[in-house]
Amino acid sequence: MNACLKASILLLCAALLGACSIQKSGQESAKLESERAEKKQQQQIAQMDPQFLYLAAQNALKDGNRLLAVKFLTSLVEKDPEAIEPQIQLTSLLLQLGKSDDAEKQIALLLKKELKKDDLERLLLTQARMKVSKNLQDEALALLDELFKENPANLPGRDLQARILSGQKRFDEALTAINEAILIEELPEFRLLQAQLLLKQNDSKAARVSLQRMRLLAPENDTAVLLLSSIALNEDDSNSAEKELRDFLNAYPHAIRVGHALGKVLIEENRIAEAIMIYRDLVNQSGQNPEILKTLGMLYFRYKDFEKSEATFRKLHQNSPDDQSRFYLAASLEALERPDEAKPFYEQIDPKGAMGDAAQIRLAGMDFTKDDLKSALTRLHRVLESKPSDTEAHLMRSAIRLTQKQYKLLIEETRDLSAMDKVHPQLLFNRAVAFDHLKQYDQLEVMLSQLLTHSPKHSEAMNFLGYSYAIQGIELDKAEKLILKALDLKPDDGYYLDSLAWVYFQRGEFKKALTTQNRALKQISDDAIMFEHLGDILWKNGDQPAARKAWEKSLQMNSENADKLNNKIQHGLDSD
């Protein structure tokens, strides 16, 4: 094709596409304009000669515009009824677009003509596909049998035959047909079809043999090794799966799909550092493929290498500036404690899009840290309007309610969610905190017991429940066991030691309480309540001057119990 003709075709296609996209305000004017554009398009097409029409159709197909290609080919066939190749192509396109009646008319016209062997094969295959689209599988199989008389090794036909028979659960017949085709010509594609059918029959051993044959026939084809690794993974043999993939990757370093599969195996086994090395190579080999870049960024993030995750997601955003890349770039910046840089990216995300709710929750978190609670609650309210059970939004809102000391409102807002089978542990914990402030200890116990049933190693809940018993002076043995169990999980935690000291205090074991409280204060030395506890324990151990000093220190730390502390300092513990 000469350069002038090619340029003309491209310009015409652009003009036609532009005409299709004209829109005006108002439904009637838009419809009228569309009709005018369509008419103009038809006039332009009608003026084109057959050679020009065929080339224009191929260009339209390259651009992915099948509808425009159909218009070009339809006009061509009308002008040149003997043009077999364009007519067969038109028939196939009509079928792909779901216009089976129009396709059938074209087939009827073609059947009246003398066709070459290749054209006849293509027509029979198109007819068979049309029968499948109409759910006439048996008629399709009959047409394929006719096709195989002309060419027993017709690959698209054998593929369609295998799919039809498989869909009818006639696996043995499908295998027989593929085996016959292999005897005529052993193509790698036939071996792949054979393996796929064997896998549907759960015969992985025979499938492996077929795939190994395929590898001999097409050493560079990665499909066989991907299936072999998949078989190994299904049999819980990750070592074999990894070996298959690594061996192929060593021979063909640019096999992106195989590298991706190997990376997934390593991620599944939590071998993040190795997976990063694989994906780092894949990024360069794939021309910075967005999916590969995203996976690499997520791996860096998971590995807590936030600088590299930020750099990777920034590159992803430059190449594919969508909401997903914006979100992960912002999350990386947040992890690097650069919220001011993260915020604009979150704000660019469409609130109604797939990442919208997550972005709004992150923005609400930023508002929360800046004490802009009104803005945070507004964002969360919008999220919960569209997703009433969104756990992250409920967690954030419950944290804000605790800050606002709106304990009853927190309990009311999370009531329905707490009754569900699966509840986030932190939501139950926040409800327990609210019940604690309201001194509704029975409900506090219910929440923490529910939490520990589903999360038996939740040390914060163990400590909280044990401390609650200690404050009330009940279930002290049970309280001690809970807190000691929490300390097994987090040895020398200052707050847990403070709780344990208070259990001993309530039991009258004042010396043991003092030893434990001193251990607690070595871990945490800036907590007003812990110094108040120290004063109470010192008083009971007979060291009144030291007790008063501890209470005074608690006061200096702006304790919420100022009146009680002043009373203790003046009159001693027994008057409290």
Could you characterize what this model shows?
This protein is mainly α. Among the domains are: about 460-525, Tetratricopeptide repeat domain (Serine Threonine Protein Phosphatase 5, Tetratricopeptide repeat); about 525-575, no CATH class. About 80% of the residues lie in helices and about 0% in strands. It has 34 helices and no strands. The protein has helices at about 5-20, 25-45, 50-60, 65-80, 85-95, 100-110, 115-135, 135-150, 155-165, 170-185, 190-200, 205-215, 225-235, 240-250, 255-270, 270-285, 290-300, 305-320, 325-335, 340-350, 355-370, 375-385, 390-405, 405-415, 415-420, 425-435, 440-455, 460-470, 475-490, 495-505, 510-525, 530-540, 545-555, 560-570. The longest helix is centred in the first third of the chain and has 20 residues, at about 25-45. It is elongated. The relative contact order is 0.02. Mean pLDDT is about 90; it is low at about 1-25.
List keywords for this structure.
Serine Threonine Protein Phosphatase 5, Tetratricopeptide repeat; elongated; 576 residues; disordered N terminus; mainly alpha
Concise description?
This protein has helices at residues 3-20, 27-46, 50-62, 66-79, 84-96, 100-111, 117-133, 137-150, 155-167, 171-184, 188-200, 204-217, 223-234, 238-251, 256-268, 272-285, 290-302, 306-319, 323-335, 339-348, 356-369, 373-386, 391-403, 407-413, 415-418, 425-437, 441-454, 459-472, 476-489, 494-506, 510-523, 528-540, 544-556, 562-571. With 576 residues, it is an all-alpha fold.
